[in-house]
């Protein structure tokens, strides 16, 4: 390229950069307006509501899936001379769509690399997997329809049949009903089938032209690179395990200090629990938070199925009392990867409404502690925090009592053992931290209110938007700040809040569903 053309490109690029910097406020305002309209008309409205094994699907979800299908269909059929060529294209596209599925051994790590929530990458994983299998099925049908011989005595054909069958079986076993029976069995079967299919597809492509093999080289290189990189985020610790009836607390003493942001989680592996635990790891939200690095992490576990239920049985005598009981006072070797996940910028909002049900409080507590710290250090603009906690069992309250005590500076904090009670903690962050009174005194100062029955979220959100609890000076002329509604709760609670927040989108109210959601 001629030197004068390079000079013109550089000069034009500098001028364009300066212009964009100058118009940055207008560009940001335009993006906010577009984001608001997209939320009102695409993200929040749902075409298919939540069901047991699928949904909810918003308009944006459906549009994205239709666009994804359309693009792949167009690529398969664009200017193809015959059906056989379309089948070969489908095979190549199937390999390309497999890259997000085979790019790493752990979805959490891949989500961190891309900077997206885990739920988003899980959706990418599902969509690309279904598309890969669909394109592969079309490739197989074109071979059958061509009536060309396909002898299985040829190793290349046999490898392709085994690899394709493994992918089909992998997709069938990913049915939500089968997955809900035993997640540990599902995930290991899923991983084994993925390895089998990758190996035999590789063997099938050995004698093929270079182009399809390049795609296999790409996801093989990506997998090995991320696996090697993930090794640097593996940590060793000592775990002390205690239980409170049906709740479990794990305290990890770290071998080296670690910075964990509010809302992040780790994938924990305790190989000494049992033989099967050698092959099992599990994600857990970190309930503790510190402005600097931490020497220990607190985890609160809600036993469901699999490893968490087995852990509870090991800790408590019962039907399996003949088995040796774990001594929670003895530290056990534990390995974990992370921290994973995205920490929400809660300090950018003037009001933060935190809504949790049951063990969902564990995901909210680090944010609550961070908000208190940021308020006192004058790092955040947050002026009001309102915590609503829908209690379901007494054990959950007892399990997290120590952390709540630390936050409220109240040794007498207790929770009611009535099913359906909730605690509404409503005050400024400074009052929350400086409180030293008991529950009765806290209630008289409107710091902690205990109510019977479900919280009236519609009334609470309306009062927060009307700023009934924020005192402003008459000379204050700044515009109202945004409200962030954070939820970690049941499906019904999240759906209810989504419908409520949708009506307040024009009033600067935003909804954030945290990474951890209780069953």
Tell me the overall shape.
globular
Number of helices: 18
**Unreliable residue stretches:** 318-324, 410-422, 430-446
Radius of gyration: 27 Å
Structure in words:
The chain crosses the membrane at residues 6-23, 128-146, 158-178, 185-202, 214-234. It is a multi-pass membrane protein. One of its GO terms (molecular function) is ferric-chelate reductase (NADPH) activity. It catalyses: 2 a Fe(II)-siderophore + NADP(+) + H(+) = 2 a Fe(III)-siderophore + NADPH. The chain has 18 helices and 14 strands. It is α+β, with helices and mostly antiparallel strands and 519 residues long. The protein has 4 domains: 3-36; 57-231, no CATH class; 234-340, Elongation Factor Tu (Ef-tu), domain 3 (Beta Barrel); 351-429 and 436-513, Nucleotide-binding domain of ferredoxin-NADP reductase (FNR) module (Rossmann fold), CATH 3.40.50.80. Strands 6-5-8-3-4-7 form a 6-stranded antiparallel beta sheet. Strands 12-11-10-9-13-14 form a 6-stranded mixed beta sheet, with helices on both faces. Strands 1-2 form a two-stranded antiparallel sheet. Helix 3 (59-77) packs across helix 4 (83-102) and helix 6 (118-145) crosses helix 7 (155-173). It is globular.
């Amino acid at each position: 390229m001629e030197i004068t053309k390079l000079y013109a490109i550089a000069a034009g690029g500098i001028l364009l950069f300066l212009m964009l910097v100058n118009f940055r406020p207008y560009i940001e305002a335009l993006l906010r307006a577009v984001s608001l309209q997209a939320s009102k008309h695409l993200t929040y409205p749902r075409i298919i509501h939540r069901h047991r094994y699928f949904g909810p699907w918003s308009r944006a979800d459906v549009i994205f899936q239709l666009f994804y299908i359309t693009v792949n269909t167009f690529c398969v059929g664009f200017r193809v001379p015959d059906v056989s060529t379309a089948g070969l294209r489908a095979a190549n596209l199937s390999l390309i769509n497999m890259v997000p599925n085979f790019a790493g051994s752990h979805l959490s790590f891949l989500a961190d690399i891309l900077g997206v929530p885990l739920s988003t990458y899980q959706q990418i994983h599902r969509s690309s997997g279904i598309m890969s299998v669909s394109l592969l099925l079309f490739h197989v049908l074109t071979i059958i329809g061509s009536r060309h011989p396909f002898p299985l005595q040829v190793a290349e054909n046999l490898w392709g049949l085994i690899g394709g069958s493994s992918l089909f079986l992998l997709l069938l076993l990913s049915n939500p009903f089968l997955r809900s029976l035993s997640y540990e069995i599902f995930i290991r079967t899923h991983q084994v089938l993925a390895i089998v299919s990758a190996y035999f597809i590789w063997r099938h492509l050995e004698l093929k032209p270079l182009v399809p093999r390049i795609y296999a080289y790409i996801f093989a290189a990506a997998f090995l690179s991320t696996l090697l990189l993930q090794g640097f985020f593996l940590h060793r610790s000592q775990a002390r395990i205690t239980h409170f009836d049906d709740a479990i607390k794990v305290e990890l003493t770290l071998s080296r200090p670690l910075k964990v942001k509010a809302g992040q989680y780790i994938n924990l592996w305790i190989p000494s629990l049992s033989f099967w635990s050698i092959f099992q790891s599990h994600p857990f939200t970190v309930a503790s938070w510190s402005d600097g690095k931490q020497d220990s992490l607190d985890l609160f576990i809600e036993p469901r199925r699999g490893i968490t239920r087995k852990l509870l049985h090991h800790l408590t005598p019962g039907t399996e009392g003949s088995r040796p009981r774990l001594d929670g006072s003895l530290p056990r070797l534990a390995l974990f990867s992370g921290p994973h996940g995205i920490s929400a910028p809660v300090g950018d909002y003037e009001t933060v409404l935190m809504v949790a049900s049951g063990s969902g409080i564990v995901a909210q507590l680090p944010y609550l502690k961070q908000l208190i710290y940021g308020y006192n250090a004058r790092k955040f603009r947050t002026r009001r925090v309102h915590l609503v906690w829908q209690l379901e069992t007494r054990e959950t309250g007892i399990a997290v009592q120590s952390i709540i005590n630390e936050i409220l500076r109240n040794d007498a904090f207790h929770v009611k053992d009535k099913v359906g009670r909730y605690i509404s903690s409503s005050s400024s962050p400074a009052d929350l931290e400086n409180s030293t009174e008991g529950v009765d005194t806290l209630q008289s100062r409107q710091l902690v209110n205990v109510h019977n029955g479900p919280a009236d979220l519609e009334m609470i959100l309306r009062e927060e938007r009307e700023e009934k609890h924020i005192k402003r000076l008459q000379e204050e002329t700044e515009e109202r700040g945004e409200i962030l509604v954070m939820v970690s709760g049941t499906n019904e609670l999240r759906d209810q809040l989504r419908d409520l927040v949708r009506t307040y989108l024009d009033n600067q109210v935003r909804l954030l569903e945290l990474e951890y959601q209780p069953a």
